[in-house]
User: What shape does this take?
Amino acid sequence: MNVARRILMASTLAIIVTAPTVAAHASSVYVQRKVESQQFPVRSACFMPPAAGLTKLGMKSAERMVKESNDWADALQALVENHLKSDGISVDVATNPLTSGASDNEIQQVIEQIEQKYDSVFPLMDKKPGEIAKSAYTLGDQVAMLPCAANSDVLVFVRAGGTVTTEGRETFSVLVGGPISGAVFIVTFADAKTGEILGLIRLRRTGNFLESAEKSFGPDLDNNLSNMNIGSARKNAKAGGH
Assistant: This one.
């Protein structure tokens, strides 16, 4: 896959959180009615490779945190996987050939094509996420070429960008204005057979968001999954009036 392009996209997300006006905790969710109503029940999910970008900001320089970015991406994907599993949803990864007989290279080519399409659609979704409810966005039926698509209801895309300011820069920004430590974390769900975008969760944080993915994003992720009514566990809880 085109790692450089994924890093560029994650870095673009990082720029979003440099504004000092970002709320300490903010979240939003956009979902199609057929998912929310369980007309399209989500029982299984296939995860695309995650992408995250972290940038360290000092008084005079900015430095990309490559290793930390990769570790953070893995931690965020694990977070989403764990929350979906707890809701009774089975999970897999896009790189799994299963019984398809497809080679690693063949699967990577398909992943690359899907990533390209997602990257082209994402700016539109980010600008007008409300259009998701109107079935406005799709990745195309090429998603069905992934081996995991045959056994999955949705594909899951995990994307995040963050800035980590040095102590001196943080103090300066608080006093006179400027970038502060913060992150935006986005989870997108697409129909694994048709590529139609079914839902999107966006979470924002300021402060020390790297200490624990669960502590920083877990509660709001759980609340938004509940709002989407994703998972049999949630369906049963809602049916019981909880």
